[in-house]
């Protein structure tokens, strides 16, 4: 995967959001703002990109997005429950039309047998009530996991929501 792929996906996403007059927000953990970065690499993205939240710590997820401390304790940050709460929280906080959230283990440390390095959960939410969540596993080192996660998030937004 190259930067060209991310730029092409970002341009496609931006064009679709513009056509709909819609806005997008991101709530990112393991990608550290990469999704917001590639979206805003496109000139004119201010017309559709509302804001991004980099909520790396559990406290940030709770304070900025309203993720329940109970959910974090019971399921962990890398879980379907938490990414759904992150996406819903970002959607509300930004008053956007669409939200994507991501939380995972980019590695090489931090994994476990249940959640090995490369495990990433994605949450998607739309103002019209549509939601979607999915877990993926990406091979490779830290940079590759983050890049593949950003690419996947953009693809799902384009294919399932726009």
Please explain how this structure is put together.
By secondary structure, this protein is of the alpha/beta class. The chain has one domain: Maf protein, CATH 3.90.950. It is 46% helix and 20% strand. The protein has 6 helices and 5 strands, in the order H-E-H-E-H-H-H-E-E-E-H. The chain has a 5-stranded mixed β-sheet, with helices on both faces. A hairpin with a 4-residue loop joins strand 4 (119-126) and strand 5. The radius of gyration is 14 Å and the shape is globular.
CATH architecture: Alpha-Beta Complex
Distance between the termini: 22 Å
Q: What name does the CATH topology carry?
A: Maf protein
Q: Provide the succession of SSEs.
A: HEHEHHHEEEH
Q: What Rg is obtained from the alpha carbons, in whole angstroms?
A: 14 Å
Q: What is the structure about, briefly put?
A:
The protein has 162 residues and is an alpha/beta fold. It is built from six helices and five strands. Residues 9-159 form the CinA C-terminal domain.
Task: Give the SSE map.
Blueprint lengths: L2 H18 L3 E5 L5 H7 L8 E6 L3 H8 L3 H7 L4 H15 L3 E7 L14 E8 L4 E7 L4 H20 L1
Parallel strand pairs: 1-2, 1-3
Antiparallel strand pairs: 3-4, 4-5
Helix pairs in contact: 1-6
Which features does this protein show?
CinA_C, CinA C-terminal domain-containing protein, CinA-like_C, 162 residues, alpha/beta, Maf protein, globular
